[in-house]
Amino acid sequence: MKLLWLQAAGCGGCTQSLLGAESRAGVLAQFADSGLELVFHPGLSEASGDESLAVLRGAADGTVPFDVLCVEGALLRGPGGSGRFQLLSGSGRPMIAWVRDLAARARHVIAIGSCSAYGGIISSGENLTDACGLQFDGDQEGGLLGGDFRAAAGLPVINVAGCPAHPGWIVDTLLSLSLGALGESDLDAWQRPRFYSEQLVHHGCPRNEFYEFKASAQKLSDLGCLMENMGCKGTQANADCNLRPWNGVGSCVRGGFACISCTEPGFEEPGHPFMETPKVAGIPTGLPIDMPKAWFVALAALSKSATPRRVRENSRADHAVIRPSIRKRGPK
């Protein structure tokens, strides 16, 4: 399976994430071992200048075969729908024109990261560049290619959303496509692969004991749960970040930062500071998925009344000040 990768408007963070994929030989060797050929990538291919333009022109006119178009970064439609806020260097053509032409040739189209999925950070604020995703404009269907778009193999745009996208999500999506094991029923309502979006960031969170007892952090360096005061949306965010950490060890909450639910449209403008939890009458407005407010209030009150001293004290410190006791076993 041949891959053609374009970088539109963004920071390149998803490529940086991909390069951290867990493979002893590196992600390119992993691609080769799996039968994936990288036809073009602006940062990883040897071709540059006129050579790279020749590859892209050949792909657009059908003389250079490829199977999958991966697009990283938001698509800039401005000014006035011309797309001239971002021209592909040396071509004189807007990036959105290249994307449309190549998408029409591809068997599969993948949005790599939340910018190319929904518009992401690039579309925040006044969005003067009229940035959007490939098939979504924020949480509305449409985007650059339109809501009815289907690639040659019959699938809509596959949104490997995240800011950045986890390398495992990218690799697993490509491998699933190469094996013919990813169908439309394997995508969720936001067209994300369900193998990672049907998990919650809360699953596997190292702070779960603090969450259970509602022992909350009061400041960034505290060990306690980040949901009540520090803006964490891990109980609402669809991703397996804590079950499949970056480089085997890292995730936002493991680094002491709140989950901002970066895999969903609109995460970039939550309406409040990222590291603060909005509340009404002292109750967080963003409750865990599937939990009624009354149940949460009752559970929180009961949990806090039963909080062990160890958990309570540790939640407000930057290191464990009280160790778990050692259970002494008696005769069976």
Structure, described:
- The chain contains eleven helices and eleven strands.
- Strands 2-1-3-5-9 form a five-stranded parallel sheet, with helices on both faces. It has a two-stranded antiparallel ribbon with strand order 4-6.
- The chain is of the alpha/beta class and 332 residues long.
- It has two domains: 2-194, NADH:ubiquinone oxidoreductase-like, 20kDa subunit (Rossmann fold), CATH 3.40.50.700; 199-321, Irregular (Cytochrome-c3 Hydrogenase, Chain A, domain 2).
- 26% of the residues lie in helices and 11% in strands.
- The model has no long low-confidence stretch (mean pLDDT 94).
- It has helices at residues 13-18, 27-33, 50-61, 95-105, 114-118, 167-178, 194-197, 208-212, 227-230, 293-305, 309-315, and strands spanning 2-7, 37-40, 68-72, 75-76, 108-112, 131-132, 136-137, 140-141, 158-160, 279-280, 283-284.
- It starts with a strand and ends in a 17-residue tail after the last helix.
- Strand 10 and strand 11 form a beta hairpin.
Question: What attributes does this structure have?
Answer:
332 residues, alpha/beta, Rossmann fold, Cytochrome-c3 Hydrogenase, Chain A, domain 2, 5-stranded parallel β-sheet, two-stranded antiparallel sheet, 11 helices, 11 strands, 11% strand, elongated
